[in-house]
Amino acid sequence: MTCKTDSSSCGSGGSCGCRSGSEAAAHDPVDAGRRWFMKAAAAFSTTVLGPGVTLLAFAESDAAHAKPADQPVSSKQRWGLLIDAGKCQDGCTACVTACSTENGWKTTGHPETDPQWIRKLTVTSPQDGSSFSMPMLCQHCAEPPCVDVCPTGASFKRADGIVLVDRHICIGCRYCMMACPYKARSFIHEPLEDQKPYAPRGKGCVESCTMCVHRVDAGGIPACVEACAKTGNAAMIFGDLNDKNSEIAKRVATYRTTRVRADLGTEPGVYYQNI
Amino acid sequence: MWMKGSWPRLVVALALIASVMAGTLAAPALAGPPTPAKGQGDKCVAPTDWMRRNHMKGLMHHRQRTVHEGIRTPQFDLNRCIDCHQVKGDDGKPVTVSDSRHFCRTCHDYAAVKLDCFECHASRPGETTTTGGLEGSPHGAPGAGDVASLNRYLEGAGR
Amino acid sequence: MARITFQKLDDHSPAFWGLLAMHAAIIAIGLGAFFYMEHHGHIVTGMNNAVVWGTPHVFAVFLIVAASGALNVASISSVFNNLAYKPFARLSGILAISLLVGGLTVLVLDLGRPERLTVAMTTYNFKSIFSWNIYLYTGFIVIVAAYLFTMMDRSVSKSGKATKVMGWTAFVWRLALTTGTGSIFGFLVAREAYDSAIMAPLFIAASFLYGLAFTVLVLLTMCRETQQELMGDEMLYKFRNLVMIFALAVLYFTAVKHLTALYATEHHGVEAFILRDGGIYTALFWIGHVLVGNILPIVIVAFLAGQGKLLTARQGLAAASVLALLGGLAFMYVTIIGGQAYPLELMPGMQIKSSFLDGEVAQYSPSLPEVLLGIAGVSIAMLITGVAAKVMPFLPRGTELEHKAA
User: Fold this and answer.
1) What is the pLDDT of residues A86-108, one digit of tens each?
2) Burial, C304: exposed, middle or buried (Cβ in 10 Å; 0-12, 13-18, 19+)?
3) Containing domain of residue B80, as a range?
4) Contact A69 B50 (CB under 8 A)
5) C352 near A CB under 8 A
6) What is the pLDDT of residues B97-113, one digit of tens each?
7) B13: distance to nearest CA of chain A, Å?
8) Which of A112, A136, A154 is closest, CB to CB, to C49?
9) Which residues contact A230 (CB under 8 A, 6 or more apart)?
10) Residues spanned by the domain of A30
11) How many independent structural domains does chain B possess?
């Protein structure tokens, strides 16, 4: 039997695409798959998220929002970050290392062409020489210029505010990189191998911070935030800006925060304190 | 005149015939149909006949919903296909798509259909996320790499 | 008014075949360069994460801008009813299409994933000016082709009405096209060097100049090939005047762009970079764009060429055209690459430093494959024009050169 000549129970008409629901449901395994999923989702939320909530202290209020895996993300959430530059230590690159390990991007010693989803910025005042350190990454704008200019719609904003590149339809024109005020995006200049299963990336496409979307969808927090907490600095908080009871929303409402290049009207989802 | 004009055509025709013959001889057809590696679980996410013809539609549908809407259901999750259908190489580790024994390649080579997924996607199961915190998540690439066992585990845990 | 007749190239000199062969060879080399870059990735180019658009884009935008300008002559004849330009309207149309195809080819072959061109053609984000441009470009080709048909079809061209309608459509369309191309840069709020509405009119003025320069050079080449005088003294004079007007317009918009920017303190950094401290970019701006591209052409046609002067009017126009095109490439280089080399202002008023080279002027030096691909774009345009002139009557019938010489 070959793939080509094998006679299928579907017949040769090819009428049983995955869209014809009734027909597909008639196949036991598909149906079983769905049932399996429902159980799994229930089991998942009780066994996995339970401990997760206590483990991930900073995501306490947010983990409760972990959506069922079969539900689309909604605009009820607006995921964001709050970064306190006052707690961010000079020379500490825990967030950068964590991001690189998590998502599989590496530096090859050519900073001009290497990807950098997140980087440490040293900001110095030319007047008095005072300086501070802060991580710079995709700002996950509410009005992202990269999304506006992308010709194919590969650059897009999810309903929950996370700005992503759909690498399946990115043609590598790099207009988004021209448009981004934060230099947050990088282009993959070389062929890659051994990518992380949950962070696909390849030559010829543009990429940037995904806010660890694979973790967030599972009710987790971004790798950088987690790593920052582990160092004890705890300069980064992740959470739902729309949820008034979340730690991040409370802090944004209480303290004076800054958003980088807010003058451009991009409405970043990343807030900074003490910059 | 006629002879003169037809020479190039003759050359082209001969070249064509030669290339077709060479292609026929080199084709894997003589080696028989492919026998892709079996998955490790009890059954696939859909009937095998259906999968043979339509797996790309399932993957495409899933990809659209996952990337844009964050829907991460297990059926047609490429990572799960990779996990379940992994083929061990000589070193005991799962082979990548650069190895002709790779599950996807066995058929795609035979059918001469270009495989584009693995320019970006990992073609073998990865380790769990190193920074921790997410072990056991449905997306953190199950270490066991066995959907069926995960299935049984979750079903048991749910009761 | 004498009846205008047209001809196709049918009596070929070795020089004609030589020229075609040369362009074909350059295109082949350019394609080789493309495959090389496509195989290894953009790591083998000079482009990087800061200068994301390099030499291919310099050539591509240059050709696209020139394409819309090449339609000038046809527009003057159909839209503004100037009969003197009518003999050149067909050539102007085909040249416009050729230049656009050449530019687009370079643009497409520089994509990170060129094999996904079908994606670009089928998936649109209508808020992107790039998407509008895909329509503007393909529409331009279709409209100019239809315009050519109304000029060249015996029955349709008789009344002249259809030509007039299509002429107007093409005219409006090409203004939109150059506006769109200029706005690719003008709409980039993040880049200080670009963020200005004046990019669009500046690009339109530049397109007039480059398009005219290409038209003149192609006509002069065709004169040689047909052994006929295709451009009479009257036309020489008209083209000469146009070169001056267009070059002055480019200078004017360039001056306005930089003067307005200089007025605002926040732009002093980027202006100082382009105008004073930018090294290669400053040199290319003043020597390439301003001097070679605009002032020299004006000086040559106004003072150095004509009867009893250093150059003949014909030589003067040819020299001015070549210089204008070289200056055009310099202008594109300064605009596209210089604009990216200047660091982004992440923290206005503060100095920034990072492992990602924030706050530093980005380094870029063109690699050979990029340059070859870019030049291949010009050759594609020239090859199409040459072949078109051979298969269809795009060229006016002129007076035999022997008469003139005698």
Assistant:
1) 999 999 999 999 999 999 999 88
2) middle
3) 36-129+139-158
4) no
5) yes
6) 998 889 999 999 999 99
7) 30
8) A112
9) A94
10) 21-47
11) 1
